[in-house]
Amino acid sequence: MSSNISKKKKKNLLKKILILKDFINKNTKDPTLIEYLLEIEKEINEKRYGLLFEEHIEEIISANNIILSEVKELSIDVGGNKNILIEGENLAALKVLEQEYQGKIDVICIDPPYNTGNKTLKYNDYDYIDSDDEYSHSKWLSFMEKRLNIAKELLVSNGVIFVNIDETQIGCLILLCEEIFGELNVDVLIWPKTDPKYDKNRVEKPIFNVKMAHEYVVMCYKNKTNTHFNKMIRRPNHSDFKTPEQPFYME
Predict the structure, then answer these.
(1) Which among 1, 140, 188, 194 is placed 20 to 30 Å from 241, CA to CA?
(2) Number of domains in the chain
(3) Around Cβ 184, how many Cβ atoms within 10 Å?
(4) Are 103 and 196 members of one domain?
(5) Reported pTM
(6) Where is the DNA methylase N-4/N-6 domain (predicted)?
(7) pLDDT tens digits, one per residue of 68-99
(8) Torsion sign across C-alpha atoms 226, 169, 139, 124
(9) Which residue has the higher pLDDT, 5 or 132?
(10) Which structural domain range is residue 33 located in?
């Protein structure tokens, strides 16, 4: 797993400052030099590099008070197999899953709000993000960061997370995933989709000179070197498939 190079540099600089402070204290005891070093140390600690965004607080119940209630009349006996369907706020649900399933999940698929200005991304049960919100990217990144950090902890050592996204946030999402999982643990898949002018989920006006007709799947590995997929073969006759993006199946 690759580490964040800026964090390595920061740690190295702070280590050198500590050595200099120790030397000054033992030899010159010059308070002015110590003050200079403290200023530099403060600046390094406060400085961030890479993807920067303001954290936005979501008013959900604390993890200690999250309780799942079973609806027994909806339970289905599937021969002893344990499957769970959780209906509720996804961050709260992830916090519950983290308590029992940390390090136990093989694959996680996430289909988040695309942050296109549609009424799909909601904060605090009432606050939607509008397309003209100047903090829309910041709020979306804060929203995703919390969930991806917990999802990462749920994965086994060779687990993978698949995140669907379109061109609105693909750049931000890749940077965020590389920050959380490491640059070498992130891949991106691309596939054609419906022409935007026929896509009812989009709220912006269709762009006619540049055709935005692709979506993406960002793959995040817990540790890519430990992850191996089964070989994929082309189905001899896949005429029963209704969409062109499904000509393969897992062997």
Answers:
(1) 188
(2) 2
(3) 14
(4) yes
(5) 0.63
(6) 105-236
(7) 788 888 888 777 777 888 888 888 889 888 98
(8) negative
(9) 132
(10) 5-46
